[in-house]
Design goal:
This protein is of the alpha/beta class. It is 35% helix and 26% strand.
Amino acid sequence: MPAVTPTPPHVLTSDTLGKLRKVNSTAVVDTLARNGYAPQYVYMPRVKNLTPGQRLVGRAVTVHFVPARPDAVAEKPPREESPEYAAFELAGPDDVIVMEAMGSKLMSIGGDIKFLRLKQRKVEGLVCDGGVRDMHVVGSYGIKIFGYDMTSNLGTTVGVPYATNSAVTVDGVLVRPGDYLVGDNDGVVVIPRAVAADIAQKAIEYDDLEEWIRRRLDDENLSPGRYYPPDEETFRLYRAWKAQQEKLRGKPTMAPAD
């Protein structure tokens, strides 16, 4: 079986992660699309929030499940060395466990006993394309859970954890260790690690831009088409307004994103 590999270092600061937690996933999808990453590469259309109202942002630590064929089951390391438990020990605050669970609600990836360890390690949350058991307990752990649905099925009859921190495909979307995930009631989106620093800053600005557009349309009683979807002129007007607001507050103005 593949060896356990370390998670790539963070490329987003705690300050940026904090700001990104206030950004809706829709703004992240739009920002990625404007920068060459179409939604089919980054958005998980069938994964839903099993802890409604909770928002998730964190670095991916991955687990790959495969069908529970007898030889694969025999190869799996025992007890604490099992790939999913190895991933739990690699993860902590600002990390998200991401499980490729073969796209089936029947594939339960765990429940109250397994995920108690995520609570103990203060892990941000978990994303999978399978089912989650015991949500009546897991939901009280304070970790954000995203998956296909709740389930009562025993996952060990369907799949077996096979690798830790390999590239995985979740709901048809590639996730690599060290990528970032943003999740909320609207869905889950992956920010590739290679562009995470740039996309995060642009998404933070874009989310604020959309709020500015809403206020301006309401104040001026205009059609959405006046400012939306935003073009370069909309960005120019927004950035000029932002600079003026910063000046009035006596704060230094940051250079605008491209």
